[in-house]
From TrEMBL:
Annotated ranges, domain Phospholipase/carboxylesterase/thioesterase: 22-168, 229-289
MF terms (GO), sorted A to Z: carboxylic ester hydrolase activity; palmitoyl-(protein) hydrolase activity
Name of this chain's protein: Several esterase
Similarity comment text for this entry: Belongs to the AB hydrolase superfamily. AB hydrolase 2 family.
GO cellular component, one term: cytoplasm
UniProt superkingdom: Eukaryota
Entry-linked InterPro entries: AB_hydrolase_fold, LYPA1-2/EST-like, PLipase/COase/thioEstase
Annotated source species: Fusarium albosuccineum
Any Pfam family hit: Abhydrolase_2
């Protein structure tokens, strides 16, 4: 179905590329940025060469199945209500536009995760969720709200996290302060709630807040969080003027405060995109944690 015929919140078919080699031991689901689609995004990414060899990103992960979903068409307030592919309306805390319409994308991505875990015989540790820019934000949202078994890894390229400030406020209310979160990496209540009388932990409060932002149905506070067992790679260009480096750093700090294992890498000459060096580091990260 062509994009011009898509209805709001309707997801086009994903682009799926089978492994180049057997056995199939890894599936990587990759979310494009706002204004892109899977058709435009997947080719340049997979063919990007290593900085030291001519081997492409796809060939470096030859046993991986790649799944590229496409976001639904929506009218973007930031772009004068133009219809573009976006995972939700809005961006991050630094922009005035209101956020919304997260729920369809979160539920859709969770459905893909369940399908891909099943295809790998239930081994969720062989499934990686990855995203660029707004796709990176949706990757973080979806992984934080994922209630299935822990994933193998989460990878963010030039990404950010909505609600960073309010979620950090909830986490810091009962947390130790004074630590520099980035040094821990390898590589008053906003809504006037009485947290002292709230029996939920700060982490439970933060995840419940994120569920509300995504307009998901209310649930009892979770007692376990799969994302705490899932390593996260975040790569960001120091010359990124679309999603400035500080927004990536703040997202990483939030994840560390939550208790996640985060590797945050920066790239001095990189703008709002990925680079062969970043893709090389992603391959190394996946090999380190998944034993490719």
């Amino acid at each position: 179905m062509s994009s011009s015929r898509l209805q709001p919140a309707q997801f086009p078919p994903s682009i799926i590329l089978p492994p180049l080699s057997t056995p199939h031991n890894l599936t990587i689901i990759i979310l494009h940025g706002r204004g892109f689609n899977a058709q435009k995004f997947h080719g340049p990414l997979l063919s990007s060469p290593s900085p030291t060899t001519s081997t492409s990103f796809r060939k470096c992960l030859s046993n991986a199945r790649f799944v590229f979903p496409t976001a639904p068409l929506g009218r973007a307030t930031k772009y004068r209500r133009s219809r573009i592919h976006q995972w939700y309306e809005g961006t991050g805390d630094w922009e005035p536009e209101a956020r919304g319409d997260m729920r369809p994308s979160v539920e859709y991505i969770h459905g893909i995760l369940r399908e891909e875990v099943e295809k790998l015989g239930g081994d969720s540790r062989k499934v990686v969720l990855m995203g660029f820019s707004q796709g990176g934000a949706m990757t973080l949202i979806s992984s934080l709200l994922w209630e299935g078994p822990e994933l193998g890894a989460v990878v963010i390229m030039s990404g950010f996290m909505p609600l960073t400030e309010s979620l950090m406020d909830l986490l810091e209310d009962k947390s130790d302060d004074g630590d520099d979160m980035l040094e821990k990496m390898s590589g008053d209540d906003l809504f006037e709630r009485d947290l002292e009388q709230d029996e939920r932990t700060p982490l439970q409060q933060a995840i419940c807040e994120l569920r509300q932002e995504a307009e998901l149905d209310p649930m009892p506070p979770a007692t376990s969080f799969p994302f705490l067992k899932t390593p996260v790679f975040m790569g960001h260009g120091e010359r990124d003027h679309d999603v400035e480096l500080c927004h990536g750093q703040q997202a990483a700090e939030l994840l560390v405060r939550m208790g996640a294992l985060v590797q945050f890498n920066t790239y001095p000459d990189l703008a709002h995109w990925y680079s062969p060096e970043m893709l090389r580091d992603i391959v190394k990260f996946l090999d380190k944690h998944l034993g490719l």
